[in-house]
Amino acid sequence: MDVFNTFVRDLKKLPAEERDKIIEEKKTKCICPTCPSYNKCAIVEREKLFCMIGQSFLCISFEEGCKCEDCPIAKEYGLEYKYFCTRGDEKGQRYLNSVWGSTLE
Ligand code: SF4
Ligand code: SF4
């Protein structure tokens, strides 16, 4: 099993409080705020870590570049996708690709 799958599986087994703590810690490494797609709304709502939490709920609708490939989290967990803020988290994109095949670059 790859690093990302193992991480998600282990995370699910943890109590909610511990899970939240890990997510908050991972958010500190997220470089989304340096990305051109990241906007004022996302700053105010403290939206981050879309690769694990899921796409932007309130703020980001337009893709104007993505920095995920340079992110330490992407490297640490071997993420295969990007534009998580608009296209959904790594888990969802992997699933969609396995079912439909990806038409997105
Ligand atoms: S891979 Fe992208 S969404 Fe995930 S933490 Fe890094 S910059 Fe944020
Ligand atoms: S997920 Fe990618 S496109 Fe979206 S804000 Fe983060 S770095 Fe930018």
Short structural summary:
InterPro entries: Uncharacterised_AF2234. The protein has helices at residues 3-13, 16-27, 40-44, 50-53, 72-77, 84-87, 90-100. It is mainly α and 105 residues long.
Describe the structure in your own words.
It comes from Methanospirillum hungatei JF-1 (strain ATCC 27890 / DSM 864 / NBRC 100397 / JF-1). This is DUF2769 domain-containing protein. InterPro entries: Uncharacterised_AF2234. By secondary structure, the chain is an all-alpha fold. It has one domain (3-8, 31-100). 50% of the residues lie in helices and 0% in strands. The chain has helices at 3-13, 16-27, 40-44, 50-53, 72-77, 84-87, 90-100. The longest helix has 12 residues, at 16-27. The radius of gyration is 14 Å and the shape is globular. It starts with a helix and ends in a 5-residue tail after the last helix. The mean pLDDT is 94. One iron/sulfur cluster binds next to helix 4 and helix 5.
Question: Any chance you could write out the topology, listing elements then pairs?
Answer:
Elements: H1 3-13, H2 16-27, H3 40-44, H4 50-53, H5 72-77, H6 84-87, H7 90-100
The structure holds iron/sulfur cluster (2 copies).
Poorly predicted ranges: none
The ligands found in this model are:
iron/sulfur cluster
* Share in β-strands: under 5%
Distance between the termini: 24 Å
Mean pLDDT equals: 94
Computed CA radius of gyration, to the nearest angstrom: 14 Å
Overall 3D geometry? globular
User: What share of the residues lie within helices?
Assistant: 40-55%
How many separate domains? Answer: 1
Q: Got a strand count?
A: 0
The assembly state of the depicted protein chains is: single chain
